[in-house]
Amino acid sequence: MNARAARPDPIACDCCGKPLQPVYGSFHRVEREFGWCSLPYVLCGSCALQHRRGATEAKVREWVLTRASRAGQTWRAAVAQIMENAR
Ligand SMILES: [Zn+2]
């Protein structure tokens, strides 16, 4: 039983699409609150640095959708609906 194997690895940066190394500290995982749930997105080091003063709401939604689409179209649609309702 390897505890690290249970952790889902980020695949790529949700901003620039660069593949990410599953090494602690090399990427930034953020969870954003949308009403009754929080949705994650992942940024590589350079994108996180670029947006460290805070990203626009539109950018955050874009990243969350990019991440959601990796889990399939059904999940992406569900996430889009959640964000729509949280407006
Ligand atoms: Zn990036």
Please state the average pLDDT score: 86
Structural class: alpha+beta
Low-confidence stretches: 1-6
Number of domains as seen in the coordinates: 1
Estimate the helix proportion, in percent.
Answer: 25-40%
Explain how this protein is built.
The protein has 87 residues and is an alpha+beta fold. It has one domain (3-85). Helix content is 37%, strand content 18%. The chain is built from three helices and two strands; from the N terminus they run ββααα. It has helices spanning 45-50, 57-69, 73-85; strands at 27-34, 37-44. Strands 1-2 form a two-stranded antiparallel sheet. A hairpin with a 2-residue loop joins strand 1 (27-34) and strand 2. Helix 2 (57-69) runs antiparallel to helix 3. It is globular and about 30 Å long. The termini are far apart. Mean pLDDT is 86; it is low at 1-6. It binds zinc ion. The site of zinc ion has 8 residues, from strand 2 and helix 1. Zinc ion is lined by residues 13, 15-16, 18, 43-44, 46-47.
Nutshell version of this structure?
The chain is 37% helix and 18% strand. It has 87 residues and is an alpha+beta fold. The chain has one domain (3-85).
Provide the fold topology.
Blueprint: E1 27-34, E2 37-44, H1 45-50, H2 57-69, H3 73-85
Antiparallel strand pairs: 1-2
The chain binds zinc ion.
Name a few traits of the molecule.
alpha+beta, disordered N terminus, binds zinc ion, two-stranded antiparallel ribbon
